[in-house]
Structure formats: C-alpha cells, structure tokens
Amino acid sequence: MDVTTARERLEEMLAELDRSIGVLQGDPVAVREHSAADAGSDLTDADRAQAMLTVATTQRQAIMEALKRIDEGLYGRCVDCGSPVPEGRLEARPEAARCVQCQGKRERRR
Fold first, then answer.
1. Using an 8 Å Cβ cutoff, are 73 and 45 in contact?
2. Could you tell me the CA-to-CA distances from 28 to 45, 52, 59, 102 in Å, in that order?
3. Residue-wise pLDDT tens for the chain (110 aa)?
4. Do residues 82 and 97 touch, judged by C-beta distance below 8 A?
5. How buried is 79 (Cβ within 10 angstroms: 0-12 exposed, 13-18 middle, 19+ buried)?
6. Closest Cα to residue 101, out of 90, 91, 84, 110?
7. How many CA atoms lie within 13 A of 17 on its CB side?
8. Residue 77: helix, strand or coil by DSSP?
9. CA 38 from centroid of its chain's CA atoms
10. What letter does residue 80 receive in the DSSP assignment?
C-alpha cells in the first residue's frame, strides 16, 4: 500500500475512533431513579463501556504511531526486525507495526 493511501485510511480510522472515544467518555448511565436491580445492570454497562474505551484508546495509539512512521519514512517496515510488513497485512491492518513473524513472537510472550 502506498503511503498516501495508508495515511488517508489511518486518518479516517483516527477520526472514527475519536468519535467513538468521545461517545464512550460520556456518562454511560442516563440520570434516572435507580432501583437495586438497576445498579447491577448499570455497573455491567459501565464496565463494558470502560473495556471498549480501553480498546479504542489502544487502537488510537497504534494509529498515531503508524502516522509517525509514515512521517519518518519507516512505514511498512517491521519495528522489531526491519523486514517489510507484507502488503496484505497492511491492507487489513494499516496500523500494523510488525511483520507476521515478529507479531506472532510478541503475542506468544504475553
């Protein structure tokens, strides 16, 4: 994927994530009278919103790092080994920072 297309896709993804993060940071529970039964449901909703916010924030950081790699002329190169990141991987995940092998190693260490 050429860097112009990559930048456009990453910027679109960033804008969408920023909208989602804004919604998730709002009050997930509408102001209303609460019964004891509602309290458990509200907590579950708040937990779910927090988990989604965590994922969105992590994704946003990956996109910002990919945009930085474009600016530095390093986009499309694995940040660990320097090998090219496969075109198909970048098509599927424009924010991908690692080649398939290095990403696999990273995931196995977790």
1. no
2. 7, 12, 21, 38
3. 899 999 999 999 999 999 999 988 885 444 445 555 555 566 687 788 899 999 999 999 999 999 999 999 999 999 999 999 999 999 999 999 999 999 999 999 98
4. no
5. middle
6. 84
7. 19
8. strand
9. 31
10. T
Q: Which residue type is seen at 67?
A: L
Pairwise CA distance, residues 46 & 59, whole Å: 20
- Residue 1 in tokens: 């994927």
pTM of the model: 0.80
- Contact (Cβ atoms closer than 8 angstroms) between residue 67 and residue 95: no
Question: How long is the chain?
Answer: 110
DSSP state of 83: P
